[in-house]
Specification:
mainly beta; 12-stranded parallel β-sheet; 7-stranded parallel β-sheet
């Protein structure tokens, strides 16, 4: 491969493959409850997130149970089938992690634990003392994994409480058989039970999921939310722990509801207006103007930089000054100066390259040097150089979470998989120059980035599907939209919150439309309306 790396050694993180496990569950991200045989409910259960059963088809007790958000998927439905497959994959990854602390015979009640992999040879209980387990994420994105040989049982009014965490904190409970959450339990984390999950009367999972691989999920007057940032049912809970299923939030999700949104900027002079559509599938849930800024400033990125689960906006002016707008829907809740960087350096991406749940800044200078600023909000906590690449040969196409995509002048494609200062390089193959990379996304919901192409001659659209080690596992043609129609791909995102990326189109007159994708299949499509020709959709990476 022509791409030369300064750093070739990939170093695993402190507790084995936890971050990788947190990224491979794909479409199960959107589920709060998922069973294998049946899902049953008694009483006024309230759920935020999808509910499913597969291969079984029986869901009972809804109503009186209510889905505050989400959809019921059953049987052979592709979304339910894929969610079960993804859940099995992460279950296997959790089992394979090396144990850091063996707690066999120790009741979890009264303990305070820090991030790590905790194992029980047989059953685990949360019943002793005050029956509260405290998980201290230590002001970071800590991952907690509990490997339990057989069952997990919690006592009446027990609790799992996460402190000092953020939106990237992940809690996983891998059970050899089944889980039973006792009456009034306040639970946190993702339960992956090899057999079944029983949630007894009034127990709550405010930040997590109940997933049963081979049995039933049984509920009785419960509250379950797969994302307490977006929906904690008015409890005011500041617990975290639901992360782990291909990330907690969609890209460019400015209000934290799990749906990708659309950011616009007009072409006025000397200043331009920034506006936003907050999306819910094919519907514009709300819209508004964010602000007005001089045209000497460019939007160079959209990521969640402060870990609050909501996408922020990164700006840079002609003099090299970098700024952030921290967003809450269409409202700029605050702004901050990041610093000044010589204009020989350009922002090439804003993906999360250290796995802390916050966007980082990927830079490249005019000599080809590549560097990363690891960010905590507007503060650069550390930086690292990743080497130099010939600018006359190789171009950075963009980045996703932990991945940087490259293309050279001969059409060769390459991938850098980045974890902190460590890089693993792989060659993806060669495509003719008429095939243009039009975006990235997880179109099949397996938790790994895919490449979206369009043929500049014919208008054909195709996808390369990648696996966990950066290899192209399959390719497929989606459809052909002749270039004579003036339709262009302007962005990708999960606009219907099904765990699979969709494709946003715009034509030469300002009409917008979405293809809702299921792998390489256009599951459905929808027109969004016309915004005119003076407005430009702002994609993830703009510099």
């Amino acid at each position: 491969m022509k791409l030369k790396l300064a750093i070739l050694l990939f170093v695993a993180l402190a507790y084995g493959s936890a971050p990788a496990a947190a990224q491979i569950v794909g479409s199960a991200q959107t589920f709060a409850v998922l069973g294998n045989t049946t899902v049953t409910n008694t009483g006024d259960t309230l759920i935020s997130g999808n509910l499913g059963v597969s291969p079984g088809t029986s869901v009972t007790g809804f109503p009186p149970g209510i889905l505050a958000s989400g959809t019921i998927y059953t049987g052979a439905d592709a979304i339910a089938v894929q969610a079960q497959a993804n859940t099995q994959a992460v279950y296997n990854a959790l089992v394979a992690m090396p144990c850091t602390t063996n707690l066999t015979g120790t009741d979890l009640g009264g303990l305070t634990l820090t991030p790590g992999v905790y194992c029980f040879d047989v059953a685990a209980t949360l019943t002793a003392g005050n029956a509260t387990l405290t998980l201290d994420a230590q002001n970071g994105s800590g991952v907690f994994v509990f490997q339990i040989g057989t069952t997990l049982t919690t006592g009446t009014n027990s609790a799992v409480n996460v402190i000092n965490g953020n939106a990237a904190t992940g809690v996983f409970w891998q059970l050899g058989t089944s889980a039973t959450l006792g009456t009034g339990t306040l639970f946190t984390g993702n339960i992956l039970a090899n057999t079944s999950v029983t949630v007894v009367s009034t127990a709550k999972i405010l930040c997590g999921r109940a997933l049963a691989l081979n049995g039933a999920v049984t509920m009785d007057t419960n509250t379950i939310s797969n994302d307490c940032i977006s929906d904690n049912f008015g409890t005011g809970s500041n617990d975290f722990g639901s992360l782990g299923f291909a990330g907690a939030h969609a890209y460019h999700d400015f209000n934290g509801d799990g749906y990708s949104d659309i950011l616009f900027r007009n072409t006025g002079s000397p200043s331009s207006t920034v506006a936003m559509w907050l999306m819910s599938g094919s519907s514009i849930a709300s819209s508004g103007t964010v602000g007005t800024i001089p045209n000497t400033y460019s939007i160079v990125g959209q990521r969640d930089f402060n870990g609050d689960g909501k996408t922020d906006i990164l700006w840079r002016d002609n003099g090299g000054n970098v700024y952030m707008w921290f967003m809450n829907g269409v409202t700029m809740s605050s702004s901050a100066t990041v610093g000044n960087v010589s204009t020989i350096w350009s922002v090439k991406g804003t993906g999360d390259l250290d796995g802390d749940g916050k966007g980082d800044l990927l830079w490249q200078d005019t000599s080809g040097n590549v560097a990363v600023w690891f960010m905590n909000g507007s503060t650069m906590t550390s930086s690292v150089g990743l080497g130099a690449v010939s600018l006359s040969t190789w171009t950075i196409l963009g980045d996703t979470t932990g991945d940087i995509f490259w293309r050279d002048t001969s059409g060769d494609l390459a991938l850098w998989q980045v974890t902190g200062a460590s890089v693993q390089s792989s060659s993806l193959g060669n495509v003719p120059s008429n095939w243009v990379v039009s975006g990235f996304g997880d179109f099949d919901g397996n938790g790994y980035p895919d490449l979206l192409f369009r043929d500049s001659d014919t208008g054909a659209v195709a996808i390369w599907f990648l696996n966990s080690i950066g290899q192209v596992q399959s390719t497929a043609t989606v459809a052909t939209v002749p270039t004579s129609t003036t339709w262009s791909i302007v962005d990708t995102g999960d606009f219907n919150r099904d765990g699979m990326s969709d494709i946003l189109w715009m034509d030469g007159t300002g009409n917008l439309a979405i293809w809702f994708m299921n792998g390489s299949t256009i599951a459905s499509s929808a027109g969004l309306g016309n915004i005119g020709t003076s407005w430009v959709v702002q994609s993830l990476n703009a510099e």
